[in-house]
Amino acid sequence: MTLLRGAGLLSGLLTVIALGGCSSAAQDASSNTVPLAKEVTLTSIEGLLHVGVTLQGYYHYIDTDGDSESGTQLVWLRDGQPIKGANQINYAVVAEDSGKKLQFRVTPAAGSGKSPGETVTSAERVIENSAPTVTLSALHVGVITPQSTDVGSELSIDIVYNDVDNDAPADPVIRWLRQKADKIDEIVIPNATGTAYTVISDDLNFYLVAEVIPVASQGVARGVAVRSQPILIAPNAIPVVQNLEVKASATPAMMGTKLTASYSYFDAEGDLDASALQWSNGSDIVGANGLEYILTPADAGKAVSVQVIPKSRTGTSPGTPVVSTPILVAANLAITSTPTIVAGYAHTCALSLVGEVQCWGRNDSGQLGNGSTTNSNTSVTITSTSGPVTALTPGDATVTGLGGRITALAAGNGHTCALNGAGAVQCWGWNVVGQLGNGDTIDSTNPVRVVGLSGQVTALTAGPTHTCAATSVGDVQCWGSNSNGELGNGSTLPNTSITPVTVPGLSGMVTALQAGYLYTCALSSSGAVQCWGYNYNGQLGNGSTSYISPAVTVAGLSGSATALTAGGQHSCALISTGVVQCWGINTSSELGNGNTMNSSTPVTVKGLTELASAVAAGFSHTCAVSITGAVQCWGLNNSGQLGNGGTINSATPVTVIGPAVTR
C-alpha cells in the first residue's frame, strides 16, 4: 500500500510530499523492516531561488510493514550545516542564505519501529539574489530657479527602479558630491541624502554630481552605483548698485519731509533684486530700511543718507555697499511760512512777500512803527533810518526803508521788535517800562535800536511788557518789566530795566526763546529747557510755584527737547521722539493730558495720532502739527480756536477740520 503525505499547494507555498507504502497486516511485527526515504528533492513553485521565496521539500516514504512515518526528521541545511528551527517541509529563504547552498535532508522513521532508516539529502541548490538596478534622469534644476544654477538653486533627480526578482525597492543610498573637475577630487557633501539639493555658497566653482545605489527590500545585494552627469555651479555674479540718489519732498528738509531713494540694480545672471537699504543720521536709524523715510525730530541738524547693499534674491554674495549724498536736515524743525507774522495784544506785524515789515491794528503807543499813533485797519509799511532789519525766514528780500534780510520778529502787548542781518535788534511802540531797550521809557512810533547787547542776537521773543534775546555767545539778555522776575536776574529789583540785563545760571548754548505771560523759557543746544519769572500755576516746570528765582530747569522731560512754545500761563516742548509735553495752568485743559489739574512738571499730551513736528501755544489752548502735516489742538475752545467745528473745550487733541499744513 502506498501513502501520500503532506500533499497539496497552499497560496503558492511548496509543501513536502511524503509517499509511503506498507505490507500486509499479517506480516510478522517482530521482524520490523527499516523505512526508506527516496527521491528527496527541494524545489520552488516560481522556479527562482532567491531571498524571500518559500521552498518546499519532497520525498517518498517507504515501509513494507506499513508503519506510519511519525518521527521522521526533516532538516534544512545551509552550506552543509543545519539551519536552526528549519525542520518543516517549507522554508522561506532569508537574507543570510544569499549566495549559500541549501539542501533538504530526511531521516525516515517508523511510528512503531525503533530503527530509523538511512538519512537521505537532496542535491545542493545555490541561492542567488538578483541585484536591482536604477536609471536616473539627467540632473536638472527644479522649478524654483529654472534658468539658474547658482547659489539658492534647487537641483533634483528622478529615479527609475528595476529588479528582475520583483523585489519592492528599499530606500536607495543617495549622496551628493562636489568635484573640482569631472570625477576628480571628490568631496561628499554632508547630510545631502535626498533626491533634491539646494545649492549653497560652498558649491561655487564645483561640479555637482548625484549618486544612487539601488537596494531591494528583500535582498542584501546592492546594485551598481549610478551617477548623474556633473553640472557646474558657476561663480555667483556679484550684483552692483549704481545711480543712487535721494530726493526730498520739500526744501529745506525738516521734520515731516519725505526722503525717497532710487537706484539702478545690475546682476550679470539676471537675479532679482534683494538689496538691503539702511537710513542713517550719523548712526543707523532703527526700522528705516525701505526706499522711503520721513524725517523725525531726532534728525534735526544732522546729515541723513541711505546705504544700499546690493544682493540677489537667489545669491548669498552681496556686492559693494553704496552710500547716497547726505541731505542736511534743518536744525530748527518748527514750521516756517512766508510771510512771517507775529501778534501783540491788539496789533499784528508781518514780513511781506517782497520783504517789507508791515503792521496793522491798534497804534496808540506807536506799535505799528509807521511814525504815527493812529490806528490802522489796513497794513502800513514800517520805515526807519537806524539800520537794517532781518526776518524769520532767511532770504534776499529787502525791507523798505530798513535794508537787509529779515530773520526774526517779536510782538508784546503794545510793542514790536525785529532782528537785523547784523544781529542787532530794533523795537518800536509802547515803552512805559523800558520794553524797547533803548535806554529810556518814551514810546516810539519808529524803530529804535536796543543798546547794550553783549553780542549778535540769534533768537528773539517778547512778553506783554518785556523782551528777551539770545546772543551768539550763548547767553540771554532781557529788558523791560521785572515785577514778577521776568528778567531772570533772581529778584524783582529793579522792577524794570530800560537796557538789557543778563540772565544768570543758564546751562549750555541757548538756541530758542519763548515768552509767555510774565515769564520766559529758553531751549539749549543740549535739549534742556530752563524758565524764569511768574510761576503761580507752575508754568516754570520745576515742580514748584515759586516765581522769585533765577532760571530753573524744567524737571521730568522724557527726552531732549527740539522746539519750545509758551502760552498765557502754560508751556510745551516738542521732544526728539515726536511726543509733546506741557506744564503749567490747566484750567481749560491746555496741557492736553485728559484732565484740568495744573501741573508744575511736564505731562505728556495724550491722543496725538502721529508723531508731532511742531507745537504752538495760544493763551489757553495749544496746537501741534504732525509729521504728515495734520493739525490737532486742545484746551479752550470758546471761540472755536480748536478748529474742530465746535466750541467745547477738549482735554485731549482733536483734529482741525480743513486742509493739511504744507511746506
Question: Topology, pairings included?
Answer:
Blueprint: E1 2-5, E2 17-21, E3 36-43, E4 54-62, E5 73-78, E6 81-82, E7 90-92, E8 101-107, E9 120-121, E10 125-126, E11 133-136, E12 140-141, E13 154-156, E14 159-162, E15 173-181, E16 184-188, E17 196-198, E18 207-213, E19 226-227, E20 231-232, E21 240-248, E22 258-266, E23 276-280, E24 292-294, E25 303-309, E26 322-323, E27 327-328, E28 341-343, E29 347-351, E30 357-361, E31 376-381, E32 408-411, E33 415-419, E34 425-429, E35 444-449, E36 457-462, E37 466-471, E38 476-481, E39 496-502, E40 510-515, E41 519-524, E42 529-533, E43 552-553, E44 561-566, E45 570-575, E46 580-584, E47 599-604, E48 612-617, E49 621-626, E50 631-635, E51 650-655
Parallel strand pairs: 2-4
Antiparallel strand pairs: 1-2, 3-4, 4-7, 5-6, 5-8, 8-9, 8-10, 11-14, 12-13, 13-17, 15-16, 15-18, 18-19, 18-20, 21-22, 22-24, 23-25, 25-26, 25-27, 28-29, 29-30, 30-31, 32-33, 33-34, 34-35, 36-37, 37-38, 38-39, 40-41, 41-42, 42-43, 44-45, 45-46, 46-47, 48-49, 49-50, 50-51
